[in-house]
Design goal:
seven-stranded mixed beta sheet, four-stranded antiparallel beta sheet, 58% strand, mainly beta
Length: 118
Amino acid sequence: QVQVVESGGGLVQAGGSLTLDCAASGSISRINDMGWYRQAPGKQRELVATITRGGSTNYADFVQGRFTISRDNAKNTVYLQMNSLKPEDTAVYYCNARVGIGFKQNYWGQGTQVTVSS
């Protein structure tokens, strides 16, 4: 069993910054890709950013250079540094970890709320 826990959400003003972190623990063989997704009220969950074990990153178009995803493999932790936040960034942010050597399985955290005020 693998547990994924996010933290770092909160309330910030537009233009502000926030850093999220996500730690995986439990019966971990190997964590491959990790990523951040978000879901705003009335909308579907969408990809924000992903990072491979080797550090290759991918970002959604709306990020526009404002966010940086990183990871610490020794700590089984992924981070999302968010700058220049906009009200439309308000959402619950979820962490995903893809775990396995042969067979791989996705694990999700419970989410952390990010609210950006005008």
